[in-house]
Design a protein that fits this description.
The structure holds 2 protein chains of 2 kinds. By secondary structure, chain A is of the alpha+beta class. Chain A has 2 helices and 6 strands. The chains are: A alpha+beta, B alpha/beta.
């Protein structure tokens, strides 16, 4: 199931499928090591269009709502 | 002298390595963006002396912000680059490393925080990594100094590989392959710090935590600050120092020009540290007896918040609210720093990506965030008339901060993009590092503030003696009296406020103002214009044109706020009700009005996607 970071539930893991943003967004996320094919885990999101926090490898990144909706993730079903 | 540049991702410990190598004192914190400008130091080995440059952190040599540009330029000017790599995040850090390998500069890698990597179950085959990168790799633990000797000894081995340039996806493929060969990760359980880490990011636990942290910080600064202030006043100033001053007064003959300037007016043969207005009496008292106690406690609390790694989490919690003011969460960091001193706060605003954001952040910060020096005097002066009056000052500034943000966000074209920030792990601050940092900040205050505070008092004295203040008082009386309800002589405080805000607030004491006048004076003084030191930095950061716009906003805001307070406070609404009302309005208005920035960002991304 492919959803945006915003629609993932805290605790779920998934693979980044698509970053639907302009060049700048892609470049910025890419430099942070967040790119298509990367496995991520959602930690939290703040209600009412707040930022989403995810963990990638050993670090955590907070992404504002406007950008988080653009990041599509294939959620891994829990076994 | 050959130049060594320290380059690396944000928050990997470049400044720690720098301070260990050079012995220089630099600000070190646990969040991305502490260093916004490069710092110079020197390192002497057996054979050679080097100039060492500590660059701000960057994820890539293709910069996305003003701060990252600095790093990229510095690398071009380096004779040797030491690339500091965070061993706990090898993959992401190697992006910059591979970019550096393509530059024409000898490179050496310091694999820092190797101890933390071990704790996190990350094992790195260092020999293999060295072989695959083709440059020396030295494991280090910069905070304890481990491996730094080896790093220095290996400097001659730094080598330029000048690899062929890769595009981004090939680069990641190369890194992925490399990391697979050198790194093994063992899964292990969450430590209690990591559990707390996640809890402070979830709104259900994070928001109450943020409230508790801010409340405790506020209580500690006010409570402990007040305690230290009273201690200084009772035991140091009124005990020991007063005797000293009275001797000096006698030696000067008890009167005369020099006496007036140094000691000021004695009240019934005794020194009144608040009202004597001498350089050595009121001047020294304001600096050491009032400001220093509060400032020291504030910096103690700030140091803990910075080094623990809490600030970026606070940024996540407030992001939603800040968006409505045209900012995003990370701008809470300049705001928090601003309570200490507006100067470092204006510098920290550089970490914000867009010019729009920097303008809004700097303007709101300098209008509505009084520095601790000013706050200490406001608390002391207004607090005497009751907490309700003090609350009106805080509530008014908060209201100004919110309303001004809402207005600028609407009027200014463009939008503030959502944030993308790295959240550092929690670390338990080391006592030694905390003491060192507090010492640096206090020394900084004493060195930078002393000339302004003592100079300010000196200028006041001269202006009084020459009758200039009285002249200006009469000249501006209609405006100051009519608009703000203050006596004409209050113009002197506004004049001195250009120099130094704490001295300006102190100058309201001899004017014998009523509680409501003090509140108006304090709010206007806080908002109307930055002090000289802040102004200089703001001009540099914003440019002359934006600073001029910002200044107009400041002056208009301050006098409108003063005028409204003059109309309402005590005459129509009692202080306590007004304070509560302003806070409630500040919380409701943004919710009702929503955010222009958000809408603009979403529609803009739709177009580019």
């Amino acid at each position: 199931m492919e959803v945006s970071l915003v629609d993932m539930k805290p605790g779920q893991t998934g693979i980044v499928k698509k970053i639907q943003g302009g060049f700048n967004l892609n470049q910025k996320l890419n430099q942070l090591g967040l790119r298509e094919g990367k496995q991520i885990k959602k930690i939290s999101s703040v209600f009412n269009r707040g930022p989403v926090t995810i963990s990638v490898d050993n670090y955590q990144v907070a992404i504002g709502y406007g950008k988080a909706v653009r990041i599509m993730v294939e959620v891994e079903e829990l076994a | 002298m050959r130049k060594i540049v320290l380059a690396g991702n944000p928050n990997v410990g470049k400044s720690v390595v720098f301070s260990q190598l050079t012995g220089s004192k630099v600000m070190i914190s646990n969040y991305a963006g502490t260093t916004v400008e490069f710092t110079k130091g020197s390192l002497t080995t057996e054979n050679e002396s080097f100039e060492v440059l500590d660059a701000p952190g960057t994820y890539s040599l293709e910069p996305t912000s003003k701060v990252e540009e600095v790093a990229s330029t510095l690398v071009d000017r380096a004779d040797i680059v030491i690339n500091i790599v965070d061993a706990t995040n090898l993959e992401r850090n190697l992006f910059l490393t591979t970019e550096l390998l393509e530059r024409e500069v000898p490179l050496i890698v310091a694999l820092n925080m190797i101890d933390e990597a071990g704790h996190k179950g990350v094992k790195i085959d260092i020999e293999k990594l060295e072989e695959l990168l083709g440059v020396p790799v030295i494991p280090t633990v910069a905070v304890s100094g481990e491996g730094l000797k080896e790093l220095v000894n290996s400097l001659p081995r730094a080598i330029n590989r000048k690899k062929a340039s890769l595009n981004t996806s090939d680069r990641w493929a190369f890194i992925g392959d490399l990391v697979g060969k050198v790194q093994a990760v063992v899964h292990r359980h969450h430590s209690w710090l990591e559990t707390l880490q996640d809890a402070s990011l979830r709104p259900a636990t994070g928001l109450p935590l943020a409230a508790v942290v801010l409340f405790l910080a506020f209580q500690l600064v006010i409570g402990l600050g007040e305690f230290l202030h009273e201690f200084m006043e009772d035991y140091v100033f009124e005990g020991f120092y007063e005797t000293l001053i009275l001797y000096l007064s006698e030696a000067l003959g008890g009167r005369g020009f020099l006496h007036d300037i140094l000691i000021g007016q004695l009240v019934d043969g005794a020194v009144d540290f608040e009202e004597s207005l001498g350089v050595l009496t009121t001047g020294v008292f304001v600096e050491l007896g009032v400001v220093l106690p509060f400032l020291a406690v504030f910096y103690m609390v700030l140091g803990f918040l910075e080094d623990s790694g809490y600030l970026p989490r606070l940024a996540v919690m407030v992001d939603r609210s800040m968006h409505r003011l045209g900012l995003h969460g990370y701008s809470i960091i300049p705001m928090v720093l601003g309570f200490g001193c507006n100067v470092p706060a204006a510098l920290a605003a550089r970490n914000l990506e867009s010019r729009r954001e920097r303008f809004i952040a700097c303007t709101l910060m300098s209008v509505a965030i009084p520095c601790m020096a000013q706050l200490a005097l406001i608390v002391g002066l207004v607090g005497r008339h009751g907490l309700d009056y003090l609350a009106v000052v805080f509530a008014s500034l908060f209201f100004i901060w919110v309303v001004l943000g809402l207005i600028i966000d609407r009027v200014m074209p463009g939008y503030t993009p959502s944030m993308v920030i790295e959240i550092p792990p929690y670390r338990i601050p080391s006592f030694k590092a905390q003491v060192k940092k507090l010492g640096m900040r206090i020394r900084g205050f004493l060195v930078h503030a002393t000339p302004y505070i003592l100079g300010g008092i000196l200028v006041v004295n001269i202006l009084y003696t020459l009758g200039i203040i009285h002249f200006l008082g009469v000249l501006f009386a209609p405006a100051v009296q009519g608009l703000l309800g203050l006596p004409g002589d209050a113009v002197s405080t506004l004049l001195i406020g250009f120099l130094r805000k704490d001295v300006a607030v102190a100058m309201m004491i001899p004017l014998g103002l009523t509680a409501r006048q003090l509140v108006i004076g304090a709010v206007v003084l806080a908002a109307y214009f930055p002090c000289a030191a802040t102004f200089t930095v703001l001009v540099k950061e914003l440019g002359v044109v934006d600073m001029a716009k910002s200044a107009v906003i400041m002056v208009v805001t301050a006098f409108s706020a003063g005028f409204i307070l003059n109309l309402l406070l005590d005459t129509v609404i009692p202080a306590a009700y007004l304070a509560v009302g302003l806070v409630v309005l500040s919380l409701i208005l943004p919710m009702v009005l929503g955010s222009t920035s958000d809408r603009r960002e979403l529609s803009d991304l739709d177009e580019t996607a």
